[in-house]
Amino acid sequence: MEARPAAGVGPRLPGRITAELILRSPQYMSCIKQYEIDLRGNKIAAIENLGATQNQFDSIDLSDNAIVRLDGFPKLLRLKQLLMNNNRVARIARGLEEFLPNLDTLILTNNRINNLQDIDPLATLPKLEHLSLHGNPVMTKPNYRLYVISKLPRLKVLDFKKVKQKERDSAKAIFACAEAQLTHASKTFEPEEDLAAVQQQAGIAGPRENGDQQMQLDGEGQGEGEAAAARATAAPSQEQLVAIKAAIANAQTLEEIHRLEEALKTGLLPSEIRVEGRDGGKGTAAAVEPAGESATGGEVEANGNGGSEQDVMDVS
Questions:
Q1: By Cβ atoms counted within 10 A, which residue in 35, 59, 60, 112 is the most buried?
Q2: Where does the record place Low complexity bias (predicted)?
């Protein structure tokens, strides 16, 4: 009589990890007293659905499959050993420590890991002590073994060879300086310096800390042209605001209005707008020469109290 499939078990899907595959696969106590499940040789292409194991295994054997990436794990707090021999693993996902916090043995013999940096994600596994990358292209890279030891300081056995203290010292001597230089090079953001550089390139000055100090610098270290430039890039005065608003009111094109509105926001006066100095506490005049011919054919005068409604348009 033909055997019937177990009740509630669907058809087996080749190349996929399913609850049915986990149920049918051998489960046993290994020689090192670990409860293990054997998922070898099922043409599995991706790690998935391991939550169906219900975190019951100390060891999972996924050897002799077609897995290309080490990821897709659920939280398996009990898992200590992962066997991945003879797959096609070329990438290792980051953040494995969140899902495999107690993993201490990872066997990746005969896979396709090519670059030294590809093993960096393993550095975050807090209990990884045994690692095999034997048969991967990465083994041909210069200082391969020392690089791995420098990245995984808790490692005790690499490629089935014990990690010696002499190797640890050599790895530290070779890669500590290189890592320090790389870390220093990555710290290129200096908030105050970068902001100042960006403002200088954009023609926008930062806020003045002290008005008296700025006036002293203008008088001592700057010529007349430099002082004028500094004043032009500082926060706009009342007279400058009046001058810009007057220029907007007399602008003839939409492009000119946008340019003057930008000047109103930044306080950076266009070259065609000139603001005269103060006279006895009043703003005497603001001479405006908009791009193109002025609507009045000459200069636009703006008095200290903002001018009339016909001369000045309030722009907020």
A1: 60
A2: 213-227
Q: Which of 61, 59, 115 is nearest to 91 (CA)?
A: 115
In a domain, 261, yes or no: yes
The domain boundary, picked from 108, 143, 178, lies at: 178
Amino acid at 178: A
Dmax (CA) of the chain: 116
In a domain, 109, yes or no: yes
- Residue 219: inside a domain: no
Number of domains in the chain: 2
Number of Cβ within a 10 Å radius of residue 124 = 13
Note whether 236 and 174 are same-domain residues. Answer: no
Instruction: Give CA separation, 168 vs 86, 105, 118, 124, 157, in Å.
Output: 29, 19, 20, 18, 12
Residue range 201-256, pLDDT digits in tens: 555 444 444 444 444 544 454 455 555 554 545 556 777 777 777 777 777 777 77
69 touches 89 (CB < 8 A): yes
Give the model confidence (pLDDT) of 83-118 as tens digits. Answer: 999 999 999 999 999 999 999 999 999 999 999 999
Q: Which amino acid does the sequence have at 140?
A: T
